[in-house]
Specification:
CATH class of one domain: Mainly Beta
Shape: globular
Protein name: WDR64 protein
Number of helices: 1
Distance between the termini: 66 Å
Radius of gyration: 19 Å
InterPro entries: Beta-prop_IP5PC_F, WD-EF-hand_domain, WD40/YVTN_repeat-like_dom_sf, WD40_repeat_dom_sf, WD40_rpt
Largest sheet: 5 strands, antiparallel
Keywords: Repeat, WD repeat
Strand content: 35-45%
Number of strands: 12
CATH superfamily of one domain: YVTN repeat-like/Quinoprotein amine dehydrogenase
Order of helices and strands: EEEEEEHEEEEEE
Pfam families: Beta-prop_IP5PC_F
Helix content: under 10%
Strand order of the largest sheet: 4-5-6-7-12
């Protein structure tokens, strides 16, 4: 068993059932996601999804970490980040059989996304039927203009970088 907690600092903490901190996760995606507001996993606890106050959905693969959390090689991997809503995500869930993620926001919309790619299928209440088999058409909701970002590796954006200023005024010269 594992407990997950989402925090205002965009951090997710994974806890043992005894209350010991096992892992802290910070998003590596290009755009800061803001405070986290919703969490869910698939039924096999291989995928962890988080929704944020800024409308982002972040997907982590936690399968190898849960197999052996003591092995340092078994890391939690952030795989995907996408903007699902223009406002705060209040709930989300994964439907494994159809491979979709359902998201809800304070803007009143409930939307459907492809679980592996973050492609938008539509919203509940639309006139057309959902076409779940076609993920080749890259469409977006009207209030979102960022396509899903596939996370290739662990970014180091959390580290402070030393910046050199080559174009500084030197009065002596």
């Amino acid at each position: 068993p594992l407990l997950a907690s989402a925090h205002e600092s965009s951090c997710i903490r994974l806890w043992s059932i005894q209350g010991n901190l096992m892992k802290e996760l910070l998003p590596f995606s290009e755009h800061p996601s803001g405070p986290l507001t919703a969490l869910c996993t698939d039924i096999f606890t291989k995928i962890l999804l988080a929704g944020s106050k800024k409308g982002h959905i972040i997907r982590w693969n936690i399968a190898s970490f849960l197999e052996d959390s003591q092995n340092k090689k078994n890391e939690v991997k952030e795989e995907l980040c996408w903007r699902a809503h223009a406002a705060k995500v209040v709930d989300l869930c994964i439907e494994e059989e159809k491979n979709v993620v359902v998201t809800a926001s304070i803007d009143g919309s409930v939307r459907l996304w492809h679980a592996m790619t973050g492609y938008y299928f539509g919203y509940f209440g639309q006139a057309r039927k959902f076409e779940l088999s076609d993920t080749s058409r890259l469409i977006l909701p009207s209030d979102v203009n960022d396509f899903p970002a596939i996370i290739k590796g662990e970014s180091k954006h959390m580290e402070k970088k030393k910046v050199k200023y080559h174009l500084m005024l030197d009065r002596d010269k």
